[in-house]
Amino acid sequence: MYQFSGKLKTIALALMVLGAVGIISGFLSTPSSVEEVKEQLHHAQNAHGGHGEAKVEHHEATDAHADHHTEASHDTHGHDAHGHADEAHHEAAPSHGEEAHGDSHAEHVFHQLKNRPWAALYVACMFFFGVTLLVLAFNAIQRVAQAGWSIVLFRVMEGITGNLLPVTIILLVLLLLGSAHVHHLFVWMAPGTVDPTAANYDAIIDGKSWWLNVPGWTIRAIVYIAGWNIYRHLSRKASLAQDNATDLVNYTKNFKMSVAFLAFFLFTESMMSWDWIMSLDPHWFSTLFGWYVLATFLVSAVTVIAMVTVYLQSKGHLEYVNDSHIHDLAKFMFGFSVFWTYLWFSQFMLIWYADMPEETTYFVQRFEEYKLPFLLMIPMNFIFPILVLINSDYKRIPNFVIGAGVVVLLGHYTDVFIMIMPATVGGEWFFGLPEIGAILFFLGLFIYSVFTSISKAPLLAKGNPFLHESETFHY
Amino acid sequence: MSSHYEAPIREPLVLGEKSYHDITVDIAKPIEGKANKNWYIAFTISLIAFLWGIGCITYTIGTGIGVWGLNKNIGWAWDITNFVWWVGIGHAGTLISAVLLLFRQRWRMAINRSAEAMTIFAVFQAGLFPLIHMGRPWNGYWVLPIPNQFGSLWVNFNSPLLWDVFAISTYLSVSLVFWWTGLLPDFAMLRDRAVKPFQKKIYALLSFGWSGRAKDWQRFEEVSLVLAGLATPLVLSVHTIVSMDFATSINPGWHSTIFPPYFVAGAIFSGFAMVQTLLGIMRKVTNLENYITRLHVEYMNMVIMLTGGIVAVAYASEFFIAWYTGSPYENFTYMSVGAATGAYGWAFWSLILFNILIPQLLWVRKFRRSFIASFLISIAINIGMWFERFDIIAIVLSKGHLPSTWTRFEPTFVDIGIFIGTIGFFGVLFLLYARTFPVIAQAEVKSILKVSGENYKKLRDGNHE
Fold first, then answer.
1. Chains A and B: how many Cβ contacts under 8 Å?
2. Nearest C-alpha of chain A: how many angstroms from B127?
3. Residue B371 has what pLDDT?
4. Residues ≥6 apart with Cβ < 8 Å to A8
5. Which of A453, B195, B278, B359 could cysteine-pair with A159, CB 3.0–4.6 Å?
6. pTM for this structure?
């Protein structure tokens, strides 16, 4: 039995407290009124000196984005609206001067700054949720595939999914706060978007309201989260019951449940990504999106399994885990990194190639406003893991796996950041206290719930019929 | 993998009381014996179809593409449908030999040889279409970036059709090398058994002087692993590039980011269905029932279910997003209400029936483990996947942006004749292969005999009790 050490528990709690402080400071530092934002912008303008050309350009970019969300337009995907808005600004800038320009702009920036602490929380929550969910799916795949190598890791994976319930509860609360209009991450939820008489009526969002409506969206969220958690609960129960069983009844039950779960997961994962991430940019769409989100969480999930395994092994808790098991995990990290890159590139390249306005805006904004993190993803998520993990010997060295894992996880956090931030805070993003605080909080929660869960059951799934294959596994 | 322990719960992969020698004899038998009447009948039919296809191809090239049913709005139809269909079929071979090797699936050993042969013969058929669908096929070599006398006029590397050239040719070369490397120990076995000098000479040539020393085997294993590692991204990228022929365009219904992984999943789906069809016959006529067992059939059906499920999610995504875009043009794509109710409704519903509904029968264990049911379902999938490609191409092109360009496509006898010809050609190659090549990788099957052979498993389990 694993004992959750007091030291680790303290670290986890400290992380949560520190994170909470960061999160709260993020909420406290948001401006309370548009006037305040105007003041700030004014200062920034002066600080930039005489004409502040770069800043003006930046304003236009964010304004264009605002129109993206608010301007009603009968053009199918609203790109022309961008064009007009940009032109209007070009013409307006010299004649109206800074003041008139600043008014609507300040309001827009105000909303973005208001969004920031929420978005920071949402990104971190989504990342840790996705990782946990995909560990659950990976575990289900191992069961369904009747893998012979990974049985000794089952309890590690099951332990990690102990984070699923807490993180999905927080996520659900965050989502419901959106439908209650406490935060405004989902612009299509704003009152008036589907009301033709309202000032912010959006014909495109209205056209999608058969899918993007608060009741339907909320019910779907509850269904997905309930479905995943029910499987996690039942599968864990069956797995523990198998430990002391003399027959394979529980094993068979678990196998069948896992098949059903994977079928459910295959559909709900795509729908989840449309509902919770793609709809942040309600004018944009991509058929690949669901699988792309899957890939980013999958590689992170395998990385987390590898890192927790290496940690537990270093503490002497995983008697039967040898370097072949680590090697296999590292191979999955390597393979899925390439797979993520394949899907990332497929989506990006096809949109870049055809350059159709309604899709391209998505990448234009990311490329212009998020250049550094956007470009940094490729070395972090592709080149680095490829170079470090292609060597068979290196894949067996725990330090290499940990090192590569840290970079991969940071890279995929960045990926989630790039998916969510541009739609919510636009050009007003910064990686600061709120973001770091949110990561630390969910990391603390992760460590706490995972190791609590691991300490509750023996680390060897004794009753599994493939256990001995896994114990003697050697590659 | 070197572990010699296997959980008793796993079913045996080699049935009967087989010894190493039995495996050799069983696999060499179809090659060393004489062909029977049925083989000659099948071969003759295939050959006639093939010759008929050659006739149609010659007629096309001699007269012009106008003999096909294409029109000025539907410039691609049966030609590219068949191309994508054949390339897709070819993907299962590499999947079985490369991906299943990476995943250490022992059951692949009885089917990888034939699956790879199928790959290569299917890519041959696929490769015909890019050539013969050209208006001026004699200028085909202009697609290659060769220095020339036109001021070194080069190709534009921005076209997915050019990427196709590189993808298909690389795919064929690597598959061929991978296949042949695996054949060396088996050809050596045939060489060593041959009694007639002529056969000995042939197999001596084919086996490259393989002598099976420890060092050779060590390198052989390493090469297989490296090639499998290379072939896996290759197999994904090849059908990805084929999918980009459509996805890079701006046609509603073609321009879809999900195409790359979805085409790959569809390729594995259809490829496995074809392997199922072929092996269903082969295990009977070559008496290899002890090697290609019910378990193999079930495992293949499971892969078919998985990839079929992935394809179903992709259809759902296509259908959903087409709706979600709010674009009126998306109402006429191959996965839309417009397609389901339009003039090509029959093609849409054939796709749904053959690809989505019928394969769901495989959830029933009885069907999954039945040779007859698997055979019939696999044929349904082959038909369904042909319709998928036809729908993507013809339905989308039949209703483009401008209503004044809306039209229909009707194939002529030449379109159909060429397709039949490729099936004949494929049959000719496969039938010849089955008579001259070891259709099961005996060296590999021998490596799992003592772990997964029925008699050895019984012996071991007896000791445990």
1. 103
2. 24
3. 93
4. A447, A451
5. A453
6. 0.91
